[in-house]
Structures
1.
Amino acid sequence: MEAIGTTAILDRSGLDALITALAAEGRTVVGPTVRDGAVVLAELEGAESLPWGWGTELDAGHYRLVRRADAAVFAHTSGPQSWKSFLHPQREKVWDADRDPGGGLAVRPSTAERPTYAFLGVRPCDLRAIAIQDRVLAGGRFKDDGYAERRRKAFLVAVDCTEPGETCFCVSMGSGPGADAGYDLALTELVDADRHRFLVRVGTTDGARLLQQVPHTPGDPVSADTARAAVDSARDRMGRAMPPVDLRALLGAKPDADRWDDVAARCLTCGNCTMVCPTCFCTTTEEVTDLTGDHAERWQRWDSCFDLDFTRLHGGPVRATPRSRYRQWLTHKLSTWHDQFDSTGCVGCGRCITWCPVGIDITEEVAAIAEEAPR
């Protein structure tokens, strides 16, 4: 068995064999595929489902698929989904309750079977996001049992980022472009004039065990150097950067910055940024009953701090204005998250910039607040 930290080489057929080996273990293999004009995450039948030869063109409020001159499969950037869609699903049953003939009430926790996942193509920024959600949902006082079980069983195949997008800023958040921890196997895609291959790094004993089931050749110094150079090049080609300031102190000290009015005039409070964010985790619960009133269910579903009802109390919402709701989201993400979870809540993936319908740029907003701070 390969040791942790060793490298190997897979060719294109080896990538297909990897998917087959993961599925043979009873795992639902999820990875990127092209659907409805975007690269989305979905169950893979095999390597043919992957987005061979597709890249992406990004900007604030803009996303477009573009054809590449080569057949690279991981040369696109993050799409509208993140892996939280599978580990922390949008809607999940919590319990059932039934009234018995004697008038009593029997409550049963949900027994729905939770799939065993293998994630193929996890970007370094998303690896960091998963680690953050692990602390929030599986390691804190209020553990989410569904998340914890799905996460414990998940097998992660990371992919180093060698083609950053115009809205990416993972370098300034310390979360990319190379995968450094949290994976079972990590791939770096190498496309030369006459060869298409993947350098594999083993991250866990499970990863080493699985690699043994897949045709591969030993890693070589030339491929390792080429992979390292590709990641280093990506580090220098980020489309955005978060300003190099103490974000925790800056936002904690500027609740009355004039910039909050500027962004509030543009923000639609649609919640797109929280839906696509790989670390946003807020939920609410809803109860439903049948027409007889004898059966009831509680469901947990995603919620957003941009929703007017998110902070509604008996006297009305606590944050009634777009200014207050955007300020809450940004300040929590970059400042008070540290107080709760000992880290930032942003990994620099840029999804909130790309998928904002009016193109609000989180890095631009922070830069404007930082510029205003001395005044």
2.
Amino acid sequence: MSEAVTRPGITTDALLASLDPLLRAWLPRQRWFAGKGRPITDFILVGVTELLPPTAELGLLHLLVRVRQPLLPEQIGGSAPSPPADCYQLLLGVRRELPTRLAPALIGHVTQGPLAGFTVYEALHDARMSTFLLEALRMQARVGKLRFERDPRKDIGDDLAPRVLAAEQSNSSLVYGDTFILKLFRRIVPGANPDLELPLMLAREGCAQVPAPAAWFLGDGVDATDEVHVLGVLQPYLKGTADGWELALRELAAGRDFSGEARALGRATADVHLALARALPSVTLGRAQVELIARGMADRLDAAAKAVPALQPYAAALHTTFEALADLGRGEADWTAQRIHGDLHLGQCLRSPAGEWSLIDFEGEPSRALSERRMPQPPVRDVAGMLRSFDYAARSHDPWAPDWAGDCRAAFCTGYAEVTGRDPRMDPVLLRAYETDKAVYEVLYEARHRPDWLPVPLAAIKRLSTNGPATEAH
């Protein structure tokens, strides 16, 4: 059941009716909204909490809103159940009049219902509202069904000025005084979010390559289930670090070699993998598990080819890669699976001024079910994601720089092997299968969100479908 709003006379149904027309126009324009290109048919208010004491002039509403939309073509038919409607976390400021400084945060003016006459806006851009979130974490507050927690060993100051990071994607981030960064998850699912679960475990293992969470906030039983929803995580802000993607593009544009950085990044990735293997159980993949992995890859290929016609000419050849994986699994392949990053690419890596690499954003691919993201996977899946990222960087350069990509890919694998004792290239069938699966995912993503980028993964699809070496960028 939804939690009642504390403003006198306002029910959840009335509040939703009041906000419905504004959210229909505003949500599809947000970068983190996953349902672009499909009409919104309905809203369901899952949870409502008033975070500030209600006044006549100012309010802060925390909403969990489920958005119903038509299914995508690849989701129609088949025996699999239809995916549930996406649930989004919203923080809405409520004012009689919006100051000029908050004009870019405007969602709309309410003309009907209990909030008629008020202006609603994205509260993260309001320093008073975002400061409240940090204070709630610092004080370990509990407001309705929202629970704010922290690591008592971490000192969280009360005078850290907030600012919103402009580079938002699937989530939103607030930086507090160059000391902490608060990630607010936008698409919310019940259960343990890997982006809190894994960094906490890695901190206990003493893994220096992953920032340890300082605080987090949760929703207890905010929907019909009794499961906890992870809503946000506060971590140290790594001031002065360089984003791996931006760093790679700068070095490439300057004509500088990046293989040394790639090798160091391979070593850092291996260190994280070894720490995860210590913290959580690993499993040996038997025949049934390998066949299941190969079948999942084949099913994703079929769904993507159905949605993106440009992929169809390569589908038959790509299927042979997944068939080879299944065949090898029936033999004497000796592979293990463990918890991994799950969505590793250059943009998920930060390099310090001293040259040390950190890995961030352990949420995994948001399009996959949480249960799948938390399953043990072969570590080579992360390796394949990084190899694809080097190829992306090289393809973004004009002219294309295949030798640069090839050097980086090889150096990353070398660095990884220096720590683990096993080079990912020693399992070429497994590596090719995961790189192909990643490229298929990229084709679907780019077709939906960035059509101009579609030629980048399609070039990899062409290479992988002609049996070109998986560890080179031809």
